[in-house]
Amino acid sequence: MTAAVTTPFDFAAYLEAARLQVEAALDASLGPERPESLREAMRYSLLAGGKRLRPILCLAACELAGGQAELALPTAVALEMVHTMSLIHDDLPAMDNDDLRRGRPTNHKVYGDAKAILAGDALLTRAFEMVALRSPGVPAERLLAVSGELSLASGAPGLVGGQVVDLECEGKSVDLETLEYIHLHKTGALLRACVLCGALIGGASEALLEALKVYARGIGLAFQIIDDILDVTASSDVLGKTAGKDLTADKTTYPKLLGLDESRRRADELVQQAKAALAPWSDKAAPLLALADYITGRDR
Ligand code: GRG
C-alpha cells in the first residue's frame, strides 16, 4: 500500500493567480460606456488596485461548492464594483471626506463630487447588469438568487443601513452591540454576499450555504476589527488611505472599546470560529481557510 501524497496548499501562488484573474476580468468589464468622462471616472477607481479580497472570496466559494471559478467571474466583478462604489461614496465630503484611497487621490478629488456620485451610481447598476446579462452558462434561477443576495447586501439591510448608523453614531459613545451592528452591516454584509453568491453559482448544498453564513460572520467582524487596529497602528503610505481617521472623526472602534490586545484576540477567535464552520469540507476548503487567516495577518 502506498501512502497518499498530499501537496501542501501554496496560498501565495493561489492568491496571486486569483488576483490576476480578477484584474483581467475587471479590466475587460467596462466596455463602451458613454460618455467617455463617466467611463474614465468608473475605471479610475475600479482599476486602482486594492486587495481584491471580495471577488477572490466569491471564486473560492464557487469552487468549494463544486463549480468552475470562471462561471462566477462576472459576479466576482459585480461584487468588486459594489465595493468600489461604496468606497467612492464613503470618501465624499458629505460622508468620510477623504483625500486618499488605494494610494491615489479619491475619485471626487479628481473628477468632482457630482461625477464621483454618478460614477458610483453607474458602477452599482453595472454590477447588477454583470449578474443579469453578462453571466453566460449560469442557470437563470441561480442568477436570480445571486441578484437577491447582492441587493440585500447593498441596500438598507446591508451596506447602506450600516453606513447610516455609523454616520449617526459619530461623536457619540457607542456600545459593543451597536458597533457590531455597524460592522456586520457596513462591512460584513458584502463579504457574506461574496461567499454566498459564489457558492450559489457553484450549486452549493443547503448545509454548505449555512456553514458559509457562519464563516462569513466570523471573517466579516474579524476583517473590521483588523481594519480598526490598522487605522491606529499602520501608516497612510502602507494602507493607501488616510491612517488615524477614526480618531479624527471621533468614531468608536474596537481598539477604543477593548484595547489593542483584546481586539486582536477577538479577531483571532472570530477567525477560528469561521474556520471551524468549514471543518466538514476541510479537504476542499483550503483557499477559504487560508483567506480567513490572511484577514487577520494582513498589514493593509
Ligand atoms: C452600496 C448602495 C451602496 C451604497 C454605499 C458609502 C456606503 C453606502 C457604505 C460604506 C461602506 C464602507 C466603505 C465600508 C468599509 C468597508 C471596508 C473596511 C473597506 C476597506 O476594504 P479593503 O481593505 O479595501 O478590502 P481594498 O482597497 O483592499 O479593496
Q: What is the approximate shape?
A: globular
Number of domains: 1
What small ligands are held by the chains?
Answer: geranylgeranyl diphosphate
Main sheet overview: 2 strands, antiparallel
CATH architecture term: Orthogonal Bundle
Number of strands: 2
User: Taking all residues together, what is the mean pLDDT?
Assistant: 94
**What is the first-to-last residue Cα distance?**
47 Å
Strand content: under 5%
By DSSP (H or I, 4+ residues per run), the number of helices equals: 15
Strand arrangement in the largest pleated sheet? 1-2
CATH fold type:
Farnesyl Diphosphate Synthase
What structural class results from the helix and strand content?
mainly alpha
Question: Helix and strand layout, with pairings?
Answer:
Layout: H1 11-29, H2 36-46, H3 53-64, H4 69-90, E1 100-101, E2 104-105, H5 107-111, H6 113-133, H7 140-154, H8 159-169, H9 176-201, H10 206-233, H11 236-239, H12 245-248, H13 254-258, H14 260-277, H15 286-297
Antiparallel strand pairs: 1-2
The structure holds geranylgeranyl diphosphate (GRG).
Geranylgeranyl diphosphate binds at residues 50-51, 53, 82, 85-87, 89-90, 95, 102, 124, 154, 159-160, 163, 186-187, 224, 227.
